[in-house]
């Protein structure tokens, strides 16, 4: 269930106020490579790069005003590939990279895009092209991230395995606070605990994957499975 006052990815807000957002690719999905080149890697004229930084900074400042000037917490999958430009804007920022089994990422993303794209796209995208889009974007995001993360000081980046967070959320949150040198965990612990209690009835989606699709994922994203030490999850059913 979504409500207007719920937190959401800042890239959606950016796409509503600026022409310089990667998420505009959702209207023109066949042009996704161009949007990635422009607004993730910023292979654009300097004035467009500066305009993006201005628009993004304005968005963050507005969010801080809305919350009384507290720390901005931004959740944006596209920022996985933007570490360099984000550090230019926010040199003291901390980064959390929450990673998950790439096979599940593929299936979850495809389910989401299959539901979303028909409602907003201005170009028809056959399912085969959608699969290629997902494979290509994630491959580029991960390669860009792995290349850029070494520039971050150790206390500015924390990588958290989703399955560990799922099994022991409070313990992993405490480790996150400690590693990133954030204050206030003990004060926030009761709120975290109450939220977790409300999520106990949540049930994750179950997935099946065609063998040919699995082979493509393993071929294209094998480097990611190796980097994060994943195999094909047992709960995913592989069908002929």
Structural notes for this entry:
This protein has 240 residues and is mainly alpha-helical. It is built from ten helices and four strands. It folds into two domains: 1-92, no CATH class; 94-240, P-loop containing nucleotide triphosphate hydrolases (Rossmann fold). It has helices at residues 10-17, 32-39, 46-66, 83-89, 102-120, 127-148, 162-167, 169-179, 185-198, 211-228; strands at 95-99, 157-161, 208-210, 237-239. The chain has a two-stranded parallel ribbon with strand order 1-2. A two-stranded parallel ribbon has the order 3-4.
Characterize this entry briefly.
By secondary structure, this protein is mostly helical. Helices cover 56% and strands 7% of the residues.
Beta strand count = 4
* SS summary, helix count: 10
Biggest sheet: strands side by side, in what order?
Answer: 1-2
Overall morphology: globular
Which percent bin holds the helix content?
55-70%
Tell me the major beta sheet: 2 strands, parallel
SSE order, as H and E? Answer: HHHHEHHEHHHEHE
Q: How many separate domains make up the residues?
A: 2
CATH superfamily of the largest domain: P-loop containing nucleotide triphosphate hydrolases
CATH class of the largest domain: Alpha Beta
Examine the secondary-structure arrangement and name the CATH architecture of the largest domain.
3-Layer(aba) Sandwich
CATH fold-level assignment of the largest domain: Rossmann fold
Mean pLDDT: 95
Q: Pick out the low-confidence regions.
A: none
* Radius of gyration from the alpha-carbon trace, in angstroms: 19 Å
SS strand fraction = 5-15%
What is the subunit arrangement here? single chain
